[in-house]
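Weekly structure sync, notes
Attendees: PL (lead), two postdocs, one rotation student
Agenda item 3: pending single-chain targets
PL asked that the sequence for the first pending target be pasted directly into the notes so everyone works from the same version. It is reproduced below exactly as submitted, 612 residues in total.
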Amino acid sequence: MAHPPRHEGPPPEAPHPPGPRHDEPPPPFRLPLGPDERDQLLRRLLPSLDAGVYVLDRQAHLVYINPRGEQLLRRTAADLVGHDAHDQLHRTADGTLAQRSECRLIQAFLAGGTTHADSEWFARGDGSLLPVRCVSSAYTIDDEPAGNIVVFSPRTPDEEPDRSHHTELVDLTDRLALVAETTVALTSTLDMDEALRRLVRLVVPRLADWAIVDLLDDNNELRRVTVVHHENGAIANITDLEGPLPPVAEHSRQPLSQVLLGAPTMLVGPETYDTLPDSGIAAVQRDLFTSTGMHSAVIAPLRGHLHQVLGALTVGRAADSRTFGPTELSLVDDIGRRAGLAVDNARLYERERRSVETMQRHLLPPMLEIDDLQMTARYLAAPHASEVGGDWYDLFILPDGVTALVIGDVIGHDLTAAAQMSQLRNILRAYAWEYYGGPPSFVVDRLDWALPHITTATLATLVFARVEGPEGGPWRLHWTSAGHPPPLLVTDDGKVSFLDDGQGLMLGIGMPTGRPNAIAPLPPRATLVLYTDGLIESPREPIDRGMADLARHAASLARRPLGVFCDQLIARARPQDNEDDIALLALRLPDRHTAGEPETAARGTGPNPRAS
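Predicted structure, written out during the meeting:
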């Protein structure tokens, strides 16, 4: 076992970033042993030391603490081993968790070599703070960086701290402001692409003139998603450098590959790529440094909540002659850590959103193809809620051939409301099928009676309607409403009318009622619109204003194709401050039946359906 070299005089300075230098840092503490031999040696030597000692792996997690360290920290090895050392120990003088970009021990860990820190504070198990002086030294195993060993001893709180710590934190206020702004930028959106765009435009040009983000997808395929460059006072996306990358090579010793495989943040210079590339991704990185002219760069891992590496952030300097140092290394590491959590959150949100959209597609029915009838529907979730909610539409064919239309709204804007909506929809379908020969009010009364007994839904509104008439027309609408906004009928020449008849009490209020029915003709080429209140309600305007706007816009769109009609109606009529779901179901009648074709005029006969 090779011991660290002895030094006479003052302690050595912290190591400088890569590049020309006149003073070399002491070589890292080396353990040329396998893991088992190393553990045996540590167990023999370190317990006898009259100083606290803990050992970190490459991810800065504690893998060992000696008995004296447990005694000083008033914590057991079982409490500490396996956890992030910074989160567990490193504190400021007032007891708050130290900023990673400010923490001298994190800087020492990232920079390698040996660093003295004379004014640190460690958290104790009893909640008190332990003022300490430390020496942090990197160690290797089989010539590969393996982590750090930290030796610490108590100091009195009033001892004069080492002022070199403060001289290294040049422009600390600006750096902390950058960390704060980065946090806000990353946490104020769940759109991953937007979050990364905000990130690189904060880093460039304040920290570097180049910024690159590489991401691993769920299949471990690597893609360069963002490359930005600051030049002549402007920030530009360099799209030619973006796109898919070669796979991460486990045998590669180059920095990007190592970071993507779990290594900590690294300082990089052009000399790193002077040798022949050992993989496809290393060749791409060499070309990147050549084409951009970067002479100093930092590559930081983007880690998720479970410390999984999701990608890498590279910041580099070309026009700026300064090289990155340990303080900036720690800063970029902190930014990368926050960016990784933001990427992880965005991916979790996107997975949940896709799952919810799949659920929505199963909850809401497909459109039907019915001879000459056009039908389409739209669903928009509440802007600040889940992608599904209590609003729904339904359409199905009854045993007598009549087309049934439903629009409804269960109170709520979340998955619970969606589940309750599904219960109501299925019960309503069953009753409509069983009592298909009766009026719509009979079906809705049965549903209202069953509501408290076989569902978890509390309050709901709906319109249940039958489109009656022979094939080819003339047709009529036969409906009842349970406290729901009235259907809107728009004729081909732009006349609009709300079908206000058939109004009854909403479902779930517990009052017995005989609901009314209503019947209205459906003219040729007219458009029938069933909708939920999210299309017309505003917290700042009366409901009459919303209904008037709906009628006005519907009239102007009367002859537009039905899909365009629906999209434009929502875009134009929806109040700006609306925060509710919207469901919309539209039906357009054809011209009257072609002359000479036979009519089937049996009462109650509906159009001929074909499931889409």
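Discussion points:
- The CA atoms of residues 397 and 429 lie 10 Å apart.
- The longest helix spans residues 326-363.
Action: rotation student to compare against the earlier draft before next sync.
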